[in-house]
Amino acid sequence: MDLRLSPSLLSGTARAPPSKSYTHRAILAAGYAAGATVERPLLSADTRATMRAVEAYGGTVTEDGDDRHVEGFDGRPDVPEDVVDCANSGTTMRLTTGTAALGDGLTVLTGDDSLRSRPQGPLLAAIADLGGRAESTRDNGQAPLVVGGAIDGGRVSIPGDVSSQYITALLMAGAATSEGIRIDLETELKSAPYVDITRELLADFGVDTEQTDAGFEVAGGQSYTRDDPYTVPGDFSSISYLLAMGVLAAPDGLRIEGAVPSAQGDTAIVDVVERMGGDVAWDRDAGVIEASRSALSGVEVSVADTPDLLPTIATLGAVADGDTHITDAEHVRYKETDRVSAMATELGKMGVETTEERDSLTVHGGESDLTGATVDGYHDHRIVMSLAVAALVADGETTVRGAEHVDVSFPDFFDVLDELGAAPTRVE
Ligand SMILES: O=C(O)C1=C[C@@H](OP(=O)(O)O)[C@@H](O)[C@H](O)C1
Ligand SMILES: C=C(OP(=O)(O)O)C(=O)O
C-alpha cells in the first residue's frame, strides 16, 4: 500500500503507542514465568511474533480486552512443533534464539527477507561456546537458524557493537540455566539503554542481573515471577515521529500523551529536538509532551545509544538550517534495512543533500525547500514514518511506497495522522 500526503498543518492530541521493546520482553518474561498478565501491550506485527514464539515454546497467550494473559512454560521451553516464524522482528528472533538454547531438542527460527539478511552470527557463536547447537542453515550467520541445547550456562565473550539484543537474549535465557551466564564484551556496547530496559524488566519479574567490569552476568536457577499485572509504558521511538510532527507542522502545538519516563534511551529525542531549537515541554509526572512549530538549526548527535532515532533525526535535519551530523551510526545499517543509506537516498529524492559515511550521516538542511516526490519505504516502518513526516512540510505531493509496514511498531500511525489533520490517502 502507498501513502499519499500533501503539506499539512497539524493540531490536537495524540497518544503514544505502548513500547515495543517493553512489550517483547514482558510477554517473553511472562513465558519464562509460570504466567503473568501484561497490561496494554503493543499489539503489532512484531510483538505478535513474540506472542507466537511463546506459544511455540509451550505457553499460551489469551486476550483480555487490551491486556494479554500469558500462561508460561516456567523456565522449561518445549521443543516447538513447527518452525518459529519471527516475521520482520529482530527482537523476537534474537530473544527467542536464547529460549531455543534451553530446549532438549532443536528449534528452527526464520523470518521474512529482511530478517533473513540480518546478523545472528555472534549470538550463534556464543550459544555454541556454551555447549549448545546453533547454526545458520546457509552458514552465513543469518536465518534460517537451527538452535538447541540444553545449555547449562557458563562464560562467553561477544562483540557489543552489532546488536545489544544478543546480550538481552543471553540474560533472559541465562536466568533459567543451572549455572547462569557471564557475558564479556569484546567491543564497546552499542544500543546500551536496551540492556537497561532488559535489566529493569527482569528485576520487575524477580530476576537479578549484574553489570560487571567486562559486561553482564546473570545467576542461574532463578525463577521469573510476577504477581501484579505488568503495565507497558509509551514508546519513545514512536513518540519521535509525533514530536517531529509538532515542531515541523503544528503552529498551535501538538499534545503527546503516554510519555512517561522509563529506561528507554530514545527519550533522548526530547533533548535532541530542544538542542535544535524546538519548542518542546515535557511534563514527566503527567507523561505529556507539548511541541510546536519552531525554526530548527542543525546539530551533531551521536546515535550510539539510540539507533532507532536516526531516520527521525535525518528528517528533522532536512528542515533545520545548516548541517545535522549524525554520528556513531554503523549499527543502524543492520536494521530492517540499511537505514543510513535509505534515508540518504530517499531524502535525496526530496531535494535534500546528504553526505554518507560508514559510521555517519550528515544532512545538509535548509538549503532548499523539501520537494514532494515518490519515495520508497524499504519495507521498513521507521523509514516510512520518517518520510511521511517529511512529506508534511514538502512542497507538493509525496507518495511513500510500502507504507503498510507501520504495522510493525505503530499500527495506528495513519489514523493518528488523519486525526491530527494531515488527510493521508491510502493507495492500494
Ligand atoms: O532490544 C530491543 O528492544 C531493541 C534493540 C535495538 O537493536 P540493536 O540492539 O540491535 O541495536 C533497537 O534498534 C531495536 O529496535 C529494539
Ligand atoms: C530495529 C528494530 O526492531 P527489531 O530489531 O526488533 O527488528 C526497530 O524497531 O527499529
UniProtKB/TrEMBL annotation:
One of its GO terms (cellular component) is cytoplasm. The active site is at D308. Residues 8-417 form the Enolpyruvate transferase domain. One of its GO terms (biological process) is chorismate biosynthetic process. InterPro entries: Enolpyruvate_Tfrase_dom (IPR001986), Enolpyruvate_Tfrase_sf (IPR036968), EPSP_synthase (IPR006264), EPSP_synthase_CS (IPR023193), RNA3'P_cycl/enolpyr_Trfase_a/b (IPR013792). It catalyses: 3-phosphoshikimate + phosphoenolpyruvate = 5-O-(1-carboxyvinyl)-3-phosphoshikimate + phosphate. Phosphoenolpyruvate binds at K20, G90, R118, Q165, R339, R382. Keywords: Amino-acid biosynthesis, Aromatic amino acid biosynthesis, Cytoplasm, Transferase. One of its GO terms (molecular function) is 3-phosphoshikimate 1-carboxyvinyltransferase activity. It is an enzyme of class 2 (transferase). It is found in: Cytoplasm. Pathway: Metabolic intermediate biosynthesis; chorismate biosynthesis; chorismate from D-erythrose 4-phosphate and phosphoenolpyruvate: step 6/7. 3-phosphoshikimate binds at K20, S21, R25, S163, S164, Q165, S191, D308, K335. Its EC number is 2.5.1.19. It holds the Pfam family EPSP_synthase. Monomer. HAMAP family: EPSP_synth. Belongs to the EPSP synthase family. Catalyzes the transfer of the enolpyruvyl moiety of phosphoenolpyruvate (PEP) to the 5-hydroxyl of shikimate-3-phosphate (S3P) to produce enolpyruvyl shikimate-3-phosphate and inorganic phosphate. This is 3-phosphoshikimate 1-carboxyvinyltransferase. It comes from Halomarina oriensis.
